[in-house]
Amino acid sequence: MSTELQELLDNNRQWAADTEAREPGFFSRLLRQQTPQYLWIGCADSRVPANELVNLLPGELFVHRNVANVVVHSDLNCLSVMQFAVDQLQVKHVIIVGHSNCGGVKAALQDRRVGLVDNWLRHVQDVRNAHQSWLDTLPESQRVDALCELNVLEQARNACQTTVVQDAWARGQAVVVHGWVYGLHNGLLEDLRMTVACAEDVHSAYRRALARVHQRYQDLRPPTP
């Protein structure tokens, strides 16, 4: 195995040259400020590159990623990113993005031990446990993706309940929390309609989004003969 990563360095130089040729002065402007309107909280999976999925340039999307796109009230890393994005950068949208066939969600669903991350995935197992009776009604082939979507709804609700978002709403700052899921099989993002713009709408938005998830999987079932 080579200890050098020259290919990546060469790719970087080519990317920088192409970007500057396409938009002269791009890096000079980027150096002066970043003014993203969006905070993306997504999975660390290498198949889900945030900026590329929404075709945004550097400086247009603030990003935080972790295993299984979890928002936990005790995670100071995630909360610090949220606080900086909302309070300092004044982002308008916080988007929680899960993806189909998520390895972390699959491990949580199946109680599969994979190492230290098992402790982190307890949060996803809590989601599974809360919805276990419904998940058990689904064909086994659909349960991972269904739990991926349920996890997005729960983590979006958690984001709404953080002090960062609650304080922003209390002072009248416009911040909207969204829940999306990305399909690895087709490259498309889907809005799960967990969209919340004020503290009073958190629970009703969650209930409506949850009902839509249930209905969609109901519609996927083959008709009864």
From TrEMBL:
Q: Which PROSITE patterns match?
A: PROK_CO2_ANHYDRASE_1, PROK_CO2_ANHYDRASE_2
Q: Into which EC class is this enzyme placed?
A: lyase
**Reactions mediated catalytically:** hydrogencarbonate + H(+) = CO2 + H2O
The record's Pfam families line, in alphabetical order, gives: Pro_CA (PF00484)
Q: Which InterPro entries match?
A: Carbonic_anhydrase (IPR001765), Carbonic_anhydrase_CS (IPR015892), Carbonic_anhydrase_sf (IPR036874)
Q: Which cofactor does it need?
A: Zn(2+)
| UniProt key word Hydrolase | no
Keywords attached to this Swiss-Prot or TrEMBL record, sorted alphabetically, are: Lyase, Metal-binding, Zinc
- The EC designation for this entry is 4.2.1.1
Which family does the record claim for this protein?
Belongs to the beta-class carbonic anhydrase family.
Cited function: Reversible hydration of carbon dioxide.
Q: What is this protein called?
A: Carbonic anhydrase
List the source organism.
Answer: Roseateles rivi
Write the lineage as a comma-separated list.
Bacteria, Pseudomonadati, Pseudomonadota, Betaproteobacteria, Burkholderiales
